[in-house]
Request: fold
Amino acid sequence: MLNIALPKGRLGEKVYSMFEAAGFECPSIRETNRKLIFENTEKQVRYFWVKPSDVAIYVERGAADIGVAGKDILLEYEPDIYELLDLELGKCRMAVAAPAGFRDDGKRTLRVATKFTGIAADHYARLGRQIDIIKLNGSIEIAPILGLSDVIVDIVETGTTLKENNLEVVETIVPISARLIANKAGFQFKRTQIERIQQSLKEQVKQHD
Ligand code: PRP
Reply:
């Protein structure tokens, strides 16, 4: 049985459709209920819905053989997994944002509010800029408005959240999208099945280009 961790939500549903098109369907997953695990013994697949930010944990620890996780999570937590394919879904970017007109004069330690402390620390270390990281868990955009931080490091998709809170992008750190990932041992043991899925997903990505 191949264990597949899918990110709960709209992205996960798109991803499941790609697995289905690859010939690894599991019809019960489309039934509306609150079940989290679904399997198709004939196709030898078991899918489960997990919180998007938890997919990499399931895969790294082998509870899932493969899964789909955002590049933001992979950069932030650096799980020991194989990154097999860019699915080119859930595209957004990790960016530094600040109140409109903000200029970093470089004089004081920069206060940075973020959920992604690892990505923020790496980014400013590369620039040689000293920062004070303020770890938040959501609604990051509020921090500079209330004077809790000077800037934020967060995900920007359409830019609407920034705009509606009078913030603007200062710089893009890295583009983000969903990636197919595999457990290292699982990849060796179940290579044939995983590579079949990988190949089909790759072709589907190409067709969308
Ligand atoms: C993300 C991010 C921004 C928003 C950006 O939050 O933290 O708040 O999306 O999207 P936009 O550029 O299209 O406005 P998300 O909704 O994922 O929830 P979160 O606050 O839990 O991070």
About this structure: The CA atoms of residues 71 and 198 lie 17 Å apart. The mean pLDDT is 96. The pocket of PRP is lined by residues 138-140, 154-161 (CB under 6 Å).
